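=== Discrete structure encoding ===
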Amino acid sequence: MNKQKNIKWTKKMLSLLGTDFDHVIADKLGLSMEATRKKRQRLGIPKFNILTPHISNEEIVSKLGKMADKKVAKQYGISTNIVRKLREDLKIEPFHKRYLPEECFNDILKKTMTDGEIGEKYGVSHDIIRMRRVEMGIIHYKRKK
């Protein structure tokens, strides 16, 4: 039975997962190997493999909330679910909820671009733009043929 159930994982602790063997990380953190392994697995972080190049988790963590989960996942060749789980575990708001600049809302109000065009301009999905547009009570823009 794991006696370390109520571990308060910090960003620094989480950034170490997968960067070395679980037992090495566990020793550094003063935790059991089991607790360390389970947390790494729950977050979908691959185990350390000395034979393959490794991505720094600190590098990934530094991008969470500053760019869309999908972009982070694509950049590092990992699944969006892994990125989302890590971001949520660290209690970091998603990119689209924090960093849509004022100009984006102005573009929505102007009704001169489609949701897809606005999303591409600001590096977010058209779904995010559509959601914001609907929240603002604005009818979608249709390009005239």
About this structure: The mean pLDDT is 82. Residues 4 and 31 are 8 Å apart (CA to CA). The two ends are 66 Å apart (CA to CA). The chain is about 55% helix and 0% strand.
